[in-house]
Amino acid sequence: MENQQHQGRNGAAAAAPTAENRFSVLNCIDLSSPDTQNSVSLLKQACLDCGFFYVVNHGISQEFMAEVFAQSKKFFELPAKEKMKVLRNEKHRGYTPELDELLDPENQVHGDYKEGYYIGVEVPEDDPEAEKPFYGPNVWPSSEVLPGWRETMEKFHQQALEVARAVARIIALALDLEADFFDKPEMLGHPIAVMRLLHYGGQVSDPSKGLYGAGAHSDYGLITLLATDDVYGLQVRIRVNLRYLTSESNWFVRLVGIDLNFLQICKNKDAQPQVWEYVAPMQGAFVVNLGDMLERWSNCIFKSTLHRVLGNGQERYSIAYFAEPSHDCLVECLPTCKSEKNPPKFPPITCSTYLSQRYKDTHADLSVYNQKQQHT
């Protein structure tokens, strides 16, 4: 493949993926397939290999997905003053400005070059559950500013949760559990389930200078569903499943002549040096990756995977849906994943304890914004 260079907004060049960078293809899970055993086999292979895979025929129409992206773009195009009216609160609901999140402090000189918007399960303020971390009412832009915005996002949140539950049932079977294991009330029956709209601006990343769209990290929960626009962004190292490289898979060959943003993953997070590879977006599909809690549940049989975003000057929009269990769920080694020769590698921990620490470690203290407002 020709080694192309693309100019960012500030004139800096970013290289497109090349053959040397090994642009990889993920296993593809068809949620409409009646062949459950084949789906389990493909998912298990993907989880053992790299922790990333595609999900197609998931029940969310392409037309509605396009509407969600259009509404997301409308929010991020608002003036900064308007967006700051719905600034992230202590429950992690609402807007996160650029540089708010620092995911890889060892390698980043400052926060991520992205802005986001958190939306969770709606819990009324007078509900006793709202006293718990990550539970409570959402923060919404004014309906006068963005009419219909809340309704669109609430509908997508609910539909994405059903997709996450369907994927979790296949994961349960792959771990020799009952299919409905993760449907329990303390798991995905009454989950935390956080959706995050993301916007990467026109900045150019430079790992040698510690500049990233999003620093290297693994996700915290059970699984993450990622919906992307058509801007390339994911890098992984995986086996190609030729069965899915059909004539309809023209996204695979659209590699030359496109301005790119790179979402990258590292198959082996313990390797030194780390090897990063690229993965294409697939129209109409979710890219699914495993989170830290599933790694703990499975006793490292399935591992969460490092990923990061490198920008090259082109805007990029994505939507991440973090499927996480309930506040009080105890995450401990599954009975099918331990033995005398393979005892549990992690102590039990509640979901809220784990999430609270990870969010605290990676997000700016809200007092920073209060101080800025006092000086403006």
UniProtKB/TrEMBL annotation:
<dbReference type="InterPro" id="IPR027443">
    <property type="entry name" value="IPNS-like_sf"/>
</dbReference>
<dbReference type="Pfam" id="PF03171">
    <property type="entry name" value="2OG-FeII_Oxy"/>
</dbReference>
<feature type="domain" description="Fe2OG dioxygenase">
    <location>
        <begin position="191"/>
        <end position="325"/>
    </location>
</feature>
<protein>
    <recommendedName>
        <fullName>Fe2OG dioxygenase domain-containing protein</fullName>
    </recommendedName>
</protein>
<keyword id="KW-0560">Oxidoreductase</keyword>
<keyword id="KW-0479">Metal-binding</keyword>
<dbReference type="InterPro" id="IPR026992">
    <property type="entry name" value="DIOX_N"/>
</dbReference>
<dbReference type="InterPro" id="IPR044861">
    <property type="entry name" value="IPNS-like_FE2OG_OXY"/>
</dbReference>
<dbReference type="GO" id="GO:0046872">
    <property type="term" value="F:metal ion binding"/>
</dbReference>
<dbReference type="GO" id="GO:0051213">
    <property type="term" value="F:dioxygenase activity"/>
</dbReference>
<dbReference type="InterPro" id="IPR005123">
    <property type="entry name" value="Oxoglu/Fe-dep_dioxygenase_dom"/>
</dbReference>
<comment type="similarity">
    <text>Belongs to the iron/ascorbate-dependent oxidoreductase family.</text>
</comment>
<dbReference type="Pfam" id="PF14226">
    <property type="entry name" value="DIOX_N"/>
</dbReference>
<keyword id="KW-0408">Iron</keyword>
